[in-house]
Amino acid sequence: MALANSQANRLAIDLLERSRLYRNSREIRQALSPCDTTASLLVNDPTKAHRLKNCTVTVCTADLPPGALVRLWPASLPKDCESAIYLTAPMEHFRQSAGRLTSSQLLLLGSWLCGQYRPRPDLTSGFIGAPPLCSAESIQHYLAMHPLLRCRKKAQSTAACLINNLASPAEAALLLLLTCPARLGGYGLPKPKANPSIALNESARQLLPAQKTVKPDLFWPKAALDVEYDSDEYHSRSLNTHDRQRIAALMAMDIEVLPITRQTLYSESALKRVAEIISRKLGVPLQTPVESKQAELRQTVLGPHDFW
């Protein structure tokens, strides 16, 4: 049987054998926690489709592609054991989502799958920090290995826009608006590195004596340019002080820092001026976004997200 956690808008689809035996299992419930009030389950045999509380059960007899599932429970059984719960791998979830999401929604989904954050609309900040579930490269490799899968073309073209290690929804929005090709609503700038670790030089260490490295938000190494998203809405005074010291350390290493406020991010004209500045510093032309696609992209990455 397959399980999808609706808290991540059906992030998982799985294969759970013998659901009748497992329906009251405390260990299974713990393995699936945290789970939203509704789960989507997929079984590979009609005889295993049982009515379960807060679950939607669907029968699917088609073979899933290699690498589409990852073992969730139990970890101790043999690898080929049928009595186990599997989650849909993030790469397969991305591919499946291409069939129901718009391109801009798929871009945002991919950004958090490959990013260091998780959407949490129940929190004031809207997200929490967490390790990446996969990488942009792993998504691209998975799609390349399965050329006959449905929605592969859309998923592949969208995955080409992704980068790893974005740390917040705001960074994801900024990245996508600046670097997506014009056909998807962006300005087509070269992709930067997100939050790379850069060793401090002697001058920078004096500003950050407790650190050996510093992480710029969106960094173009060849131009030594860092675009920093500057929002103190959810930050304490001490954190703001640390951010200022971090920016000073970056400048001490001859890295140019371009701060972007929330007001700039949400202003189409202001962000266009930022894109023009970056294009000049990188020495590349600026693409003109398709107007309708830009409006769609902005609405998706800057608006409330309810499609996970």
The chain-level structural class is alpha/beta
Q: Work out the helix count.
A: 12
Strand content: 15-25%
Number of discrete domains: 3
Strand order of the largest sheet: 3-2-1-5-4
Q: Classify the helix fraction into a percent range.
A: 25-40%
Q: Based on Cα principal axes, name the global outline.
A: globular
Mean pLDDT: 83
Protein name: DUF559 domain-containing protein
Organism: Muricaecibacterium torontonense
Report on the structure:
- The chain folds into three domains: 2-88, no CATH class; 90-184, no CATH class; 189-286, no CATH class.
- It has helices at residues 19-22, 26-32, 90-97, 103-113, 136-145, 152-159, 169-179, 202-207, 237-252, 262-266, 268-282, 291-302, and strands at 2-5, 39-43, 55-59, 69-73, 85-88, 117-119, 127-129, 193-194, 198-199, 213-214, 218-220, 225-230, 256-261.
- It has twelve helices and 13 strands.
- α3 packs across α5, α4 crosses α7 and α7 (169-179) packs antiparallel against α12.
- A five-stranded mixed beta sheet has the order 3-2-1-5-4. The chain has a four-stranded mixed beta sheet with strand order 8-11-12-13, with helices on both faces.
- It is of the alpha/beta class and 308 residues long.
- This is DUF559 domain-containing protein.
- It comes from Muricaecibacterium torontonense.
